[in-house]
Write a structure and sequence with these properties.
The structure holds two protein chains of two kinds. In chain A, about 35% of the residues lie in helices and about 25% in strands. Chain A is an alpha+beta fold. Chain A has three domains: about 150 residues, D-amino Acid Aminotransferase, Chain A, domain 1 (2-Layer Sandwich), CATH 3.30.470; about 70 residues, ATP-grasp fold, A domain (Dna Ligase, domain 1); about 150 residues, Rossmann fold (3-Layer(aba) Sandwich). In chain A, strands 1, 8, 9, 10, 11, 12 and 13 form a seven-stranded antiparallel sheet that branches. In chain A, strands 2-7-3-4 form a four-stranded antiparallel sheet, covered by helices on one side. In chain A, a hairpin with a 4-residue loop joins strand 11 and strand 12. The two termini of chain A are about 35 Å apart. Chain B is about 35% helix and about 20% strand. Chain B has a seven-stranded mixed sheet. The chains are: A alpha+beta, B alpha/beta. At the A-B interface, helix 8 of A face helix 4 and helix 5 of B.
């Protein structure tokens, strides 16, 4: 689960990290009210769950309340990489002496957490990693001993920070690691972490991604989920325990198993079509689950055919077939359906489907080809 | 011969009296696997499919001498179950459980490495040596004994490929599901090394997917250490960046972990990469003919 800057900043602050105090506004008028003349120039920042805000014009300096209102007006409603801006953060403008990148994430290859920093703050870190990897300093964290103070200091010295600034930096690095660990983040980033003109450290941005598998032990986090930023079908799917990702094509997919579901999307592409979604219906392809899956897939008006691919192991093909025919009595599906059934009792299942007037294939490739033809004929 | 599990395998089921544990214990026993005992705290005296249940792994080990543990414990308790199995020196621990927080798995992985325990999973279907031992949830009947080692991050996609191989008359030595999470106990490289050393395995099928760089690491290993032919399939050519595709580990982050990159890395290492599961048997048979 991705958090907005203002949400991550609050969490960082609760762990002792100095963040730039700001407030969230949903309208230009609210933004203007936040920028009182007494508090000096402000920065208006789009709150969207994607990067590249600056480049897209989503971050603006404003010297007066009127400029703040105008900046907010321009930024609200902006489409940044397919995310619509619905909120802006209004925060004091800061006198920046130096910008640092600081982040904590999982180094998958080593199966260890890693703290990374770079003196190239404020820049897309992926660009630095790709073009100037030697500019990133990394410290692997011992899974039992944690992130040591000496490691944090070592990073600070390696960044070339002035000696009297290292201790302050090291403290923030350890606070960020503690935040990452205790909040079950898969990513916690401050980019940029700035040294102000006064010599103070300040987090000018905040980014956190939370491990979905850990949400059960952070009951407050679910309320942080930005439902406006999410496709409503993906939300509904999650409520039903179905994995669903919306894509741009016109062939809806319903499959049992994530790997097989991805391979099915690929098969659609290889046969000249475009998948409308990823959907893993999981182990129990009951009438209920299948009906839910149909509802999710048909919610997309672009869908012109549906491909169901079930490999039954424990799941029996005849039971799945019954589930499908029953589900069709509950949910209106206005597009052609092609079913591929393989595995346990698949032959019996395909017979049941054919009798119900559905196209049933034994081969995944054949089913994909048929689904593509059906979508193009529609 | 096979790798990791065979006729001498003696299985302990942790979480045996739960719904998943009891169902799959029955399935494993039906397949002919030697399930010697199970553990559920408070379950002492019960029996599932003929296997006696104990309160602790230590009791089960003392009484029944298992050499493999399979874990069907819910996500919030599974790390603890893995630690218990490691502490009792079980050489192979197979964790089926999906949904374990990655923060929990980081120390579990490190501890298993330190103690020399081979951990398979989590979020995996287990492993099977056809006709000898099924330690997992896969449908046994689609597997036939033969010369092809199969290693995969998936569940049903693995079955799809195994079924295609069996129908084509090309059986499997052992089929291993390494799991779909970002931190897993056994990687592609680990299993490839075992297959390379196994006299009964003549060729290897590797089934990967988007996310992480285990396939790329495997490609380098294959280049340097694997002489047997390898056929690869990578799921997720059409996956969009930044979205988790079901498996916690199946996500393209920061532009890396794409199917295209993995396929290219494997091809550069001499792996025969196919673009659909149905093409695997043909590629394997061609490889077996020329090797």
């Amino acid at each position: 689960m991705n958090l907005h800057e203002y949400q991550a900043a609050e969490i960082f602050a609760s762990h002792g990290i100095h963040t730039n105090p700001g407030s969230v506004a949903s309208t230009a008028a609210e933004a203007m009210a936040l920028a009182q003349p007494a508090s000096g120039p402000v920065v208006v920042k789009a709150q969207v769950l994607t990067g590249g805000r600056g480049k897209a014009g989503g971050v603006k300096l404003a010297r007066t309340p009127e400029e703040t209102r105008d900046a907010a007006s321009t930024i609200l409603g902006l489409d940044i990489r397919e995310h619509i801006v619905r909120k802006v953060l209004v925060a004091p403008a800061v006198d920046i002496a130096q910008e640092i990148y600081l982040g904590v994430t999982l180094d998958r290859a080593r199966r260890q957490n890693v703290v990374m920093a770079s003196a190239e703050g404020g820049v897309d870190i992926e660009e630095v990693a790709r073009d100037r990897p030697e500019r990133i300093v990394r410290a692997l964290v011992d899974p039992f001993l944690g992130f040591h103070a000496w490691q944090a200091r070592q990073i600070g010295f390696a960044l070339g920070l002035a000696a009297e600034r290292v201790a302050g930096f090291a403290t923030i690095a350890r606070q960020l690691y503690d935040t990452y660990l205790s909040e079950d983040a898969t990513l916690a980033e401050i980019n940029p972490l700035v040294l102000t003109g006064n010599g103070d450290w300040l987090a000018l941005d905040a980014k956190m991604t939370i491990d979905d598998n850990a949400l059960f032990r952070h009951p407050g986090f679910e309320s942080l989920r930005d439902l406006d930023a999410e496709d409503p079908t993906e939300f509904n799917a999650r409520q039903s325990g179905i994995s669903f990702v919306k894509l741009g094509g016109d062939i809806g997919c319903i499959v049992n198993g994530a790997g097989l579901a991805m391979a099915t999307m690929d098969a659609v592409m290889l046969h000249g079509g475009e998948p409308a979604n990823f959907l893993d219906v999981g182990g129990g392809a009951s009438a209920d689950q299948v009906a839910k899956a149909f509802s999710l897939v048909t919610a997309d008006p672009n869908v012109r055919a549906i491909l169901i691919n079930i490999f039954g192991g424990i799941t029996r093909g005849d039971v799945v077939a019954q589930g499908i025919t029953e589900a069709l009595q509950r949910v209106a599906v206005p597009v052609p359906i092609v079913v591929r059934l393989s595995g346990t009792n698949a032959e019996e299942g395909r017979r049941i489907l054919s009798e119900a007037g559905l196209t049933a294939s034994e081969s995944m490739d054949e089913a994909a080809a048929r689904a593509v033809r059906a979508a193009h004929a529609a | 011969m096979s790798i990791l599990v065979d006729r001498d395998t003696r299985v302990l089921v942790q979480g045996i009296t739960g719904r998943e544990g009891s169902f799959h214990t029955e399935q494993m026993v039906e397949y002919g696997t030697n399930v010697v005992s199970g553990v559920t705290p408070g379950g002492k005296g019960k029996s599932v499919a003929g296997a006696p249940v104990f309160d602790t792994v230590a009791d089960a080990v003392a009484e029944t001498a298992p050499n493999v543990a399979i874990i069907f414990v819910p996500a919030r308790f599974a790390p603890d179950a893995i630690y218990e199995a490691i502490d009792n020196d079980l050489p192979l621990v197979v964790c089926i459980t999906e949904g374990i927080p990655v923060a929990d798995m980081v120390p579990v992985y490190a501890h298993a490495q330190n103690r020399g325990t081979r951990l398979l999973g989590p979020n995996c279907p287990g492993l099977i040596t056809p006709g000898a031992a099924k330690v997992g949830i896969m449908p046994g009947f689609i597997h036939t004994l033969g010369p092809v080692g199969v290693v995969s991050r998936s569940g049903t996609l693995t079955y799809e490929v195994v079924d295609a191989l069996s129908r084509a008359g090309t059986g499997q030595s052992t089929a291993v599901g390494i799991g779909g999470d970002p931190v897993i106990g056994t990687s592609f490289v680990d299993v490839l090394g075992l297959f390379e050393a196994d006299p009964a395995t003549d060729a290897i099928v590797m089934i990967g997917e988007i996310g992480g760089n285990d396939e790329e690491t495997a490609a380098r290993f294959i280049q340097d250490h694997v002489t047997k032919p390898v056929v690869g399939f990578i799921a997720g050519q059409t996956a969009p960046p930044g979205k988790r595709m079901g498996h916690a580990g199946a996500i393209i982050s920061g532009g890396s972990g794409t199917a295209a990159e993995k396929m290219a890395a494997l091809e550069a290492a001499g792996v025969r990469v196919v673009d659909r599961p149905s093409a695997v048997p043909g590629a394997i048979q061609a490889a077996l003919r020329t090797s």
